[in-house]
Inverse folding.
């Protein structure tokens, strides 16, 4: 089982840095990030072998994250994957897209 803590810390820092005015909460070991005008836009959930990053408005992204239907998500298994440019771009797009209210 990989050590997911560095991945979670990197993603948390990247999300907070990329989206100004962000609010966040933790519920049931899931981290939620949102903006008052857009609702909850991102959810980060560590599992046994990956960290899932859920984009609540991800179906409208160009290109959308690979998994899911309305809410789209990506499974991040390594720190290199967490540093991928598409992760940063999806976070930017989330900061401009309606989420879960």
């Amino acid at each position: 089982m990989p050590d997911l803590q560095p991945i979670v810390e990197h993603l948390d820092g990247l999300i907070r840095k990329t989206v100004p005015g962000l609010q966040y909460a933790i519920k049931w070991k899931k981290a939620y990030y949102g903006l008052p005008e857009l609702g909850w836009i991102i959810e980060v959930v560590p599992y046994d072998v990956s960290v899932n990053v859920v984009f609540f408005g991800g179906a409208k992204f160009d290109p959308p994250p690979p998994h899911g239907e309305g809410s789209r998500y990506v499974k991040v298994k390594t720190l290199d994957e967490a540093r991928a440019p598409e992760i940063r771009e999806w976070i930017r797009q989330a900061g401009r897209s309606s989420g879960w209210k």
Remarks:
- Helices lie at 5-18, 79-82, 85-94.
- The domain at 5-94 is CATH 3.90.1150 (Aspartate Aminotransferase, domain 1).
